[in-house]
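Write out the bound-state structure for iron/sulfur cluster.
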Amino acid sequence: MLKRLLGRVLIRTDGWVDRLYGSKWNPLYQSGALVVLCLAVMLVTGLYLIFFYRIGAPYESIVRIEGQPWGGRWIRSLHRYAADGAVVAAVLHALRMFFQGRSWGPRALAWISGVFLVFLLYVCGLTGYVMVWDTHGQLLAAEGARLLDALPLFSEPISRAFAGADPMPSAFFFMNLFLHIAVPVGIVIFLWLHVSRVARPVLLPPRPLLWATVGLLTAAALVLPAALGPAADLLRLPGDVTLDVFYTFWLPWTRSVPPGMAWLAAGVASAVIVAVPFLTRPRTDRRPAPSFASTRLCTGCEQCYTDCPYDAIRMVDREGGRGGKVALVNPAACVSCGICAGSCAPMGVGPPGRTGRDQMSRVKEFVQRHPDPGEDIVVVGCGRSAAGAWAGDQARRFLVSCAGNLHTSVVEYLVRSGARGVLIVACPSRDCWGREGPKWLVERLFHEREAELKARVDRRRVRVAHASAFDQWSLEEAMDEFAIDLARLDAPVGDDAVEVETECDLAESAAPHDPSLPRTEHTLDP
Amino acid sequence: MSAQTWARRSVASLLAIAGVVAMAGLSRVRWRNPAAETAELRLSWRIPAPSERSCRPPTEAEIEGVLPHMRPSEVCTDEAIPYRLTVLLDGDTLHSGPVARAGGRIRAITVYERFAIAPGDHRIAVEFAPEAASASEAMAMAVNADVAAAPGDVILVAPDDTGRLRASKGS
Ligand code: HEM
Ligand code: SF4
Ligand code: SF4
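---
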């Protein structure tokens, strides 16, 4: 219930932000890549700061950095704001994945490694704050030690190091600095694991968004330099402290409760977040089935293997001594996005019910129900895009599970049946739930990518619009523009009998989901 | 550029700037630590854990089967001496109890305690001594001191260079 409500808020926010920034530059769609960008900024600025940091005199070295007229002050602030930006972007990214239901099955590894990435980001951030050794760092170190002392880890309370009886040993600052530098190595390893199941991960936002983000963070660093509290004094209780809400929001609360309660809250919250892949997994009968490839239809062209955004397809030797390769889907890696169905000219691969052949039978029924499409623009679209929420004439709407799932033969069939125009509505490119659907769709329609739209189809009658669910403005705008352009063309002439041949034209009964085809023949056992 | 596009770009830029300003603001939220309204009495030291050795001749069973030149003349056990910590503030007991010792018998005893105390003038009395009355007095540590504590002050009770407990205040 709450998930649905918040999901609706997310969809609306996406729509408004699309309106303002354009879906190409919508930062919400780039949240994962923005985290990587912030990490990169932290790395570059951190390399500068490390030259001036002294473990023997931590606070004094930060004061010296702050005093540098050309570098230090704003570079330190930029380092800080990039760290804050990383948390903001990571939270947005995780929320998106959660509300879009991209958190279970083959994506569980990305989810769980993402949680560890955030944990490491926090270790990095907190050790960074302790490095400064102002009153904020002092409070944080003392509270961290108090919490750790409650665990059966140390034979003696480590909090005693902060008693103030002796000066803080350099070894403490050395260990802290070591963690601050070593943890990013762990972040790189976990990031590799995080994106290991996706093909062609997009690690950086598009250039304009990249430079705008770096520019804004730099401007903030120059105009609103980061705070630096008074030097730590272990024999004074810090009074007024400036907290960084993104990293130390928990400090006032944990200080007011016994450590056991703080650990319990952290443990329960972490367990729930880590368990999300299991909690959000749909019931077995509601789970979309993975794709499978028919060895009878597959010609071994490798297109689905190239296009699959989750590297779920392998090419293996064809059995039975016929030579050559056939596609083999790994159901444990397949998220059932359906994009491979649009790749396959002979329509031999795809999730059950969504292969090219299934789409062809559906579009034939669609045209039969709508015998005179000549007056109309047919809206073909991904159910999650604006097409899914479109309130126009439902008889003119043909939905697929993802724009990348759409087989170009469906478009050909509609145009050759006499549709005035076919407007294909896809999600904004960087918000495709199957990652690469809109990208491959455009390539197949207009750039000859297999399975390409045949040359005989009048391209002027085919258009693609990118519009998220709430962004009905863009859909209507595209529809109006398309209608104007179509009005300049002659009236469409439908073919008497539309025969859209598939390259390997087997009987309809040989469709990949035909139960007569043994499943083990097409899929790899998990 | 149409007026609408111009307006949209302006709103988009303002929103992005507002977002970054909000982020910078949230990274410097002032918080008043309520603990700083009081003062703190802090006890911190670590001493090698004293133990008592008791020895007796070995029993028949203990030397049975042991080569004659390998037989011990006596069997000794080291018993850790239990310690008690008592803290009085203006004559009232703040704390009184055995000191838990970490790990095995011969380990150090660590004391680390913190007590929030009201700002003002106080008389503090700290005693750290073996529980058994028979134990040597040299093993005990104690301090009695008058202190003036302002809000946020830490009164640290710790051994000085000579090993005696002292109560001191930060600058
Ligand atoms: C330091 C933090 C993080 C970074 C740098 C990061 C970065 C990324 C990147 C670059 C991608 C690939 C995007 C693409 O090309 O489609 C991705 C995917 C993903 N991330 Fe993260 N992420 C982080 C944290 C998280 C967290 C906290 C979660 C959830 C708890 C999460 C969940 C996911 C999921 C489920 C995917 C896969 C999406 C899909 O398969 O469609 N990530 N992340
Ligand atoms: S796209 Fe079709 S024909 Fe080509 S490898 Fe995949 S299943 Fe085989
Ligand atoms: S449906 Fe096809 S393209 Fe999508 S993950 Fe599965 S095999 Fe890959």
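---
The interface with chain A takes residues 8, 11-12, 15-17, 20-21, 23-36, 38-40, 42, 44-46, 102-103, 107-108, 110, 112, 151-154, 156, 158, 169-171 of chain B (CB under 8 Å).
The two ends of chain B are 64 Å apart (CA to CA).
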